[in-house]
Model the fold of this input.
Amino acid sequence: MKHTAPPKHFLKDDDLTVAQQAEVLDLAAKMKADPYAYPALAGPKSVAVVFEKPSTRTRLSFDIGIAELGGHSVVIDAQSTQLGRGETVGDTARVLSRYVSAIVIRTFGDDRIEELAANASVPVVNALTDGWHPCQLLADLQTVAEHKPLKGTSIAYLGDAAFNMGNSTVIACSMAGMHVRIGAPEDYQPAPEVLARAAEINAATGGSVVVTEDPVEAVAGADVVSTDAWVSMGMADSEKRIEELTRYQLNGELLAHAADDAIVLHCLPAHRGEEITDEVMDGPHSRVFDQAENRLHAQKALLAWLLRER
Ligand code: CP
Ligand code: NVA
Done:
Protein backbone atom coordinates (compact mmCIF):
# COMPACT_ATOMS: atom_id res chain seq x y z
CA MET A 1 0.00 0.00 0.00
CA LYS A 2 1.53 3.34 -0.98
CA HIS A 3 0.01 6.64 0.15
CA THR A 4 0.78 10.00 -1.41
CA ALA A 5 -0.80 12.53 1.02
CA PRO A 6 1.39 13.25 4.08
CA PRO A 7 0.11 11.25 7.06
CA LYS A 8 -1.08 12.76 10.34
CA HIS A 9 1.06 11.53 13.24
CA PHE A 10 0.46 11.50 17.00
CA LEU A 11 3.95 11.80 18.47
CA LYS A 12 3.06 14.16 21.29
CA ASP A 13 -0.08 15.51 22.92
CA ASP A 14 -0.33 18.72 20.91
CA ASP A 15 -0.12 16.94 17.57
CA LEU A 16 -3.89 17.12 18.00
CA THR A 17 -5.48 20.56 18.18
CA VAL A 18 -7.59 21.41 21.21
CA ALA A 19 -10.74 20.75 19.16
CA GLN A 20 -9.35 17.46 17.81
CA GLN A 21 -8.46 16.29 21.33
CA ALA A 22 -12.07 16.95 22.39
CA GLU A 23 -13.33 15.11 19.30
CA VAL A 24 -11.18 12.04 20.02
CA LEU A 25 -12.31 12.02 23.68
CA ASP A 26 -15.94 12.25 22.62
CA LEU A 27 -15.45 9.35 20.21
CA ALA A 28 -13.69 7.36 22.96
CA ALA A 29 -16.71 7.73 25.24
CA LYS A 30 -19.00 6.55 22.42
CA MET A 31 -16.73 3.57 21.71
CA LYS A 32 -16.72 2.65 25.39
CA ALA A 33 -20.54 2.60 25.35
CA ASP A 34 -20.71 0.55 22.12
CA PRO A 35 -17.33 -1.18 21.51
CA TYR A 36 -18.08 -2.94 18.21
CA ALA A 37 -20.03 -0.17 16.46
CA TYR A 38 -16.98 1.45 14.81
CA PRO A 39 -15.33 -0.89 12.26
CA ALA A 40 -12.75 1.73 11.22
CA LEU A 41 -10.15 -0.94 10.36
CA ALA A 42 -12.52 -3.33 8.55
CA GLY A 43 -10.85 -5.02 5.65
CA PRO A 44 -9.03 -5.97 7.77
CA LYS A 45 -6.52 -3.15 7.67
CA SER A 46 -3.31 -3.97 9.55
CA VAL A 47 -1.52 -1.97 12.22
CA ALA A 48 2.06 -2.64 13.37
CA VAL A 49 2.60 -2.21 17.13
CA VAL A 50 6.33 -2.19 17.90
CA PHE A 51 7.95 -2.31 21.34
CA GLU A 52 11.51 -1.32 22.24
CA LYS A 53 10.58 -1.26 25.98
CA PRO A 54 8.35 -3.58 28.05
CA SER A 55 4.57 -3.08 28.22
CA THR A 56 1.41 -4.72 29.54
CA ARG A 57 -1.43 -2.20 29.12
CA THR A 58 -0.29 -0.58 25.87
CA ARG A 59 0.45 -3.92 24.22
CA LEU A 60 -2.88 -5.49 25.13
CA SER A 61 -5.05 -2.43 24.64
CA PHE A 62 -3.72 -1.73 21.15
CA ASP A 63 -3.89 -5.39 20.11
CA ILE A 64 -7.45 -5.81 21.41
CA GLY A 65 -8.57 -2.37 20.26
CA ILE A 66 -7.39 -3.01 16.70
CA ALA A 67 -9.38 -6.28 16.69
CA GLU A 68 -12.47 -4.48 18.00
CA LEU A 69 -12.15 -1.97 15.12
CA GLY A 70 -12.21 -4.89 12.68
CA GLY A 71 -8.49 -4.72 11.93
CA HIS A 72 -5.44 -6.95 12.25
CA SER A 73 -2.57 -6.14 14.61
CA VAL A 74 1.04 -7.23 14.23
CA VAL A 75 2.52 -6.81 17.71
CA ILE A 76 6.30 -7.17 17.74
CA ASP A 77 9.25 -6.69 20.05
CA ALA A 78 11.83 -4.71 18.11
CA GLN A 79 14.59 -7.00 19.41
CA SER A 80 13.11 -9.87 17.43
CA THR A 81 13.17 -7.82 14.22
CA GLN A 82 16.06 -6.44 12.17
CA LEU A 83 15.81 -3.26 14.26
CA GLY A 84 17.55 -5.37 16.92
CA ARG A 85 20.45 -5.88 14.50
CA GLY A 86 20.75 -2.22 13.61
CA GLU A 87 18.45 -1.68 10.62
CA THR A 88 17.56 2.01 10.75
CA VAL A 89 14.17 3.16 11.96
CA GLY A 90 13.90 5.15 8.73
CA ASP A 91 14.27 2.08 6.53
CA THR A 92 11.95 0.14 8.85
CA ALA A 93 9.31 2.88 8.52
CA ARG A 94 9.51 2.78 4.72
CA VAL A 95 9.07 -0.98 4.67
CA LEU A 96 6.24 -1.13 7.25
CA SER A 97 4.40 1.65 5.40
CA ARG A 98 4.04 -0.74 2.45
CA TYR A 99 2.22 -3.29 4.64
CA VAL A 100 0.21 -1.50 7.30
CA SER A 101 -2.25 1.37 7.74
CA ALA A 102 -0.59 2.76 10.87
CA ILE A 103 2.54 2.21 12.98
CA VAL A 104 2.38 2.35 16.78
CA ILE A 105 5.76 2.38 18.53
CA ARG A 106 7.16 2.49 22.07
CA THR A 107 10.79 3.54 22.07
CA PHE A 108 13.47 5.54 23.88
CA GLY A 109 14.52 8.98 22.57
CA ASP A 110 12.03 11.13 20.70
CA ASP A 111 14.56 11.49 17.89
CA ARG A 112 13.88 7.83 17.11
CA ILE A 113 10.10 8.19 16.70
CA GLU A 114 10.60 11.46 14.79
CA GLU A 115 12.90 9.66 12.33
CA LEU A 116 10.35 6.88 12.00
CA ALA A 117 7.54 9.38 11.35
CA ALA A 118 9.62 11.35 8.86
CA ASN A 119 10.07 8.20 6.79
CA ALA A 120 6.58 6.71 7.19
CA SER A 121 3.80 7.26 4.69
CA VAL A 122 1.18 6.09 7.22
CA PRO A 123 0.25 7.61 10.63
CA VAL A 124 2.75 6.96 13.45
CA VAL A 125 1.46 6.82 17.05
CA ASN A 126 3.63 7.32 20.13
CA ALA A 127 3.02 4.44 22.54
CA LEU A 128 5.54 6.05 25.00
CA THR A 129 8.91 7.64 24.49
CA ASP A 130 11.25 9.19 27.03
CA GLY A 131 9.63 12.56 26.31
CA TRP A 132 5.91 11.82 25.97
CA HIS A 133 3.10 9.37 26.71
CA PRO A 134 0.23 11.00 24.79
CA CYS A 135 -2.01 7.90 24.47
CA GLN A 136 -1.93 7.58 28.24
CA LEU A 137 -3.10 11.17 28.64
CA LEU A 138 -6.07 10.60 26.33
CA ALA A 139 -7.11 7.79 28.68
CA ASP A 140 -6.41 9.97 31.73
CA LEU A 141 -8.59 12.77 30.37
CA GLN A 142 -11.33 10.31 29.47
CA THR A 143 -11.23 9.06 33.07
CA VAL A 144 -11.40 12.56 34.54
CA ALA A 145 -14.27 13.45 32.19
CA GLU A 146 -16.24 10.51 33.60
CA HIS A 147 -16.33 12.39 36.92
CA LYS A 148 -15.84 16.10 36.30
CA PRO A 149 -15.91 18.64 33.45
CA LEU A 150 -12.34 18.91 32.12
CA LYS A 151 -12.30 22.68 31.75
CA GLY A 152 -11.50 24.39 35.04
CA THR A 153 -10.76 21.16 36.94
CA SER A 154 -7.47 21.06 38.86
CA ILE A 155 -4.95 18.24 38.67
CA ALA A 156 -1.94 17.82 40.96
CA TYR A 157 0.88 15.75 39.51
CA LEU A 158 3.50 14.56 41.98
CA GLY A 159 7.03 13.21 41.78
CA ASP A 160 9.00 12.89 38.55
CA ALA A 161 7.53 15.60 36.33
CA ALA A 162 10.52 15.90 34.02
CA PHE A 163 9.91 12.71 32.03
CA ASN A 164 7.18 11.35 29.71
CA MET A 165 4.19 11.42 32.09
CA GLY A 166 4.98 14.81 33.57
CA ASN A 167 5.44 16.41 30.14
CA SER A 168 2.30 14.87 28.67
CA THR A 169 0.25 15.77 31.75
CA VAL A 170 1.32 19.41 31.47
CA ILE A 171 0.51 19.69 27.76
CA ALA A 172 -2.61 17.50 27.45
CA CYS A 173 -4.28 18.93 30.56
CA SER A 174 -3.49 22.49 29.45
CA MET A 175 -5.16 21.68 26.12
CA ALA A 176 -8.23 20.52 28.04
CA GLY A 177 -8.33 23.82 29.98
CA MET A 178 -7.36 22.22 33.29
CA HIS A 179 -5.33 23.79 36.10
CA VAL A 180 -2.15 21.77 36.53
CA ARG A 181 -0.12 21.88 39.74
CA ILE A 182 3.23 20.16 39.57
CA GLY A 183 4.71 19.07 42.91
CA ALA A 184 8.31 18.05 42.29
CA PRO A 185 11.88 18.85 43.39
CA GLU A 186 13.74 21.30 41.17
CA ASP A 187 15.61 18.64 39.19
CA TYR A 188 12.37 16.78 38.45
CA GLN A 189 10.31 19.68 37.15
CA PRO A 190 9.23 20.01 33.49
CA ALA A 191 11.76 21.64 31.16
CA PRO A 192 11.32 25.38 30.44
CA GLU A 193 10.31 24.67 26.83
CA VAL A 194 7.48 22.39 28.00
CA LEU A 195 6.23 25.08 30.40
CA ALA A 196 6.53 27.72 27.67
CA ARG A 197 4.46 25.60 25.29
CA ALA A 198 1.87 25.07 28.04
CA ALA A 199 1.67 28.84 28.59
CA GLU A 200 0.93 29.33 24.86
CA ILE A 201 -1.81 26.71 25.00
CA ASN A 202 -3.27 28.08 28.24
CA ALA A 203 -3.57 31.57 26.77
CA ALA A 204 -6.20 30.06 24.48
CA THR A 205 -7.81 27.42 26.73
CA GLY A 206 -7.92 29.26 30.07
CA GLY A 207 -5.94 26.49 31.77
CA SER A 208 -2.87 27.09 33.92
CA VAL A 209 0.29 25.43 35.22
CA VAL A 210 1.86 26.08 38.63
CA VAL A 211 5.12 24.42 39.65
CA THR A 212 6.07 24.03 43.31
CA GLU A 213 8.54 22.00 45.34
CA ASP A 214 5.92 21.68 48.08
CA PRO A 215 3.76 18.54 47.66
CA VAL A 216 1.07 19.84 50.04
CA GLU A 217 0.76 23.10 48.11
CA ALA A 218 0.39 21.11 44.87
CA VAL A 219 -2.33 18.85 46.26
CA ALA A 220 -4.30 21.39 48.35
CA GLY A 221 -7.92 21.31 47.17
CA ALA A 222 -7.04 19.45 43.93
CA ASP A 223 -9.85 17.67 42.06
CA VAL A 224 -7.49 15.06 40.58
CA VAL A 225 -4.20 13.76 41.99
CA SER A 226 -1.85 11.85 39.71
CA THR A 227 1.58 10.32 40.01
CA ASP A 228 3.94 7.95 38.20
CA ALA A 229 6.94 5.74 38.87
CA TRP A 230 10.02 7.45 40.26
CA VAL A 231 12.31 5.20 38.22
CA SER A 232 11.12 4.96 34.63
CA MET A 233 12.12 2.37 32.04
CA GLY A 234 15.69 2.96 30.93
CA MET A 235 16.76 4.89 34.07
CA ALA A 236 19.75 3.69 36.08
CA ASP A 237 20.13 5.93 39.16
CA SER A 238 17.27 4.40 41.13
CA GLU A 239 18.55 4.77 44.73
CA LYS A 240 19.24 8.48 44.32
CA ARG A 241 15.88 9.09 42.67
CA ILE A 242 13.91 7.23 45.34
CA GLU A 243 15.68 9.19 48.08
CA GLU A 244 15.05 12.54 46.36
CA LEU A 245 11.38 11.82 45.64
CA THR A 246 10.29 10.20 48.92
CA ARG A 247 8.64 13.41 50.14
CA TYR A 248 6.27 13.27 47.14
CA GLN A 249 4.79 9.85 47.92
CA LEU A 250 1.02 9.83 47.31
CA ASN A 251 -0.17 8.48 50.67
CA GLY A 252 -3.30 8.97 52.74
CA GLU A 253 -1.86 11.90 54.64
CA LEU A 254 -1.03 13.84 51.46
CA LEU A 255 -4.30 12.90 49.74
CA ALA A 256 -6.22 14.31 52.73
CA HIS A 257 -5.23 17.78 51.45
CA ALA A 258 -7.07 17.23 48.12
CA ALA A 259 -10.78 17.94 47.49
CA ASP A 260 -13.14 15.59 49.35
CA ASP A 261 -14.29 14.05 46.06
CA ALA A 262 -10.82 14.00 44.47
CA ILE A 263 -9.96 11.14 42.14
CA VAL A 264 -6.56 9.46 42.04
CA LEU A 265 -4.82 8.50 38.80
CA HIS A 266 -1.66 6.49 38.12
CA CYS A 267 -0.74 5.32 34.62
CA LEU A 268 0.57 2.03 36.08
CA PRO A 269 2.59 -0.03 36.62
CA ALA A 270 2.68 1.21 40.23
CA HIS A 271 5.55 0.63 42.60
CA ARG A 272 3.40 0.18 45.67
CA GLY A 273 5.08 1.65 48.73
CA GLU A 274 7.22 4.01 46.62
CA GLU A 275 5.31 6.70 44.70
CA ILE A 276 1.88 5.48 45.91
CA THR A 277 0.71 3.50 48.93
CA ASP A 278 -1.65 0.51 48.95
CA GLU A 279 -4.06 2.62 50.99
CA VAL A 280 -4.41 5.15 48.15
CA MET A 281 -4.19 2.69 45.21
CA ASP A 282 -6.91 0.51 46.69
CA GLY A 283 -8.83 3.33 48.39
CA PRO A 284 -12.17 4.96 47.52
CA HIS A 285 -10.62 7.82 45.51
CA SER A 286 -8.66 5.57 43.17
CA ARG A 287 -9.73 5.31 39.53
CA VAL A 288 -6.53 3.68 38.30
CA PHE A 289 -8.18 0.60 36.85
CA ASP A 290 -10.84 2.61 35.01
CA GLN A 291 -7.90 4.62 33.70
CA ALA A 292 -6.17 1.43 32.51
CA GLU A 293 -9.40 0.30 30.82
CA ASN A 294 -9.76 3.64 29.09
CA ARG A 295 -6.45 3.09 27.26
CA LEU A 296 -8.46 0.68 25.08
CA HIS A 297 -11.28 3.09 24.25
CA ALA A 298 -9.11 6.19 23.83
CA GLN A 299 -6.65 4.47 21.49
CA LYS A 300 -9.41 2.97 19.36
CA ALA A 301 -10.84 6.48 18.97
CA LEU A 302 -7.42 7.90 18.14
CA LEU A 303 -6.73 5.25 15.47
CA ALA A 304 -10.18 5.69 13.92
CA TRP A 305 -9.70 9.45 13.89
CA LEU A 306 -6.17 9.31 12.40
CA LEU A 307 -7.24 6.93 9.65
CA ARG A 308 -10.33 8.99 8.86
CA GLU A 309 -8.10 12.04 8.40
CA ARG A 310 -6.13 10.33 5.61
N1 CP B 1 0.68 2.77 31.42
C1 CP B 1 1.33 2.03 30.52
O1 CP B 1 1.74 2.52 29.45
O2 CP B 1 1.47 0.74 30.87
P1 CP B 1 2.35 -0.37 30.13
O3 CP B 1 3.80 0.02 30.33
O4 CP B 1 2.01 -1.66 30.82
O5 CP B 1 1.99 -0.38 28.69
N1 NVA C 1 7.25 6.88 33.27
C1 NVA C 1 7.02 5.45 33.12
C2 NVA C 1 5.70 5.19 32.51
C3 NVA C 1 5.35 3.74 32.36
C4 NVA C 1 4.05 3.51 31.67
C5 NVA C 1 8.14 4.88 32.27
O1 NVA C 1 8.53 5.50 31.28
O2 NVA C 1 8.65 3.80 32.62
Summary: The mean pLDDT is 97. Residues 128, 163-165, 228-229, 232-233, 267 surround norvaline (ligand 2) (CB under 6 Å).
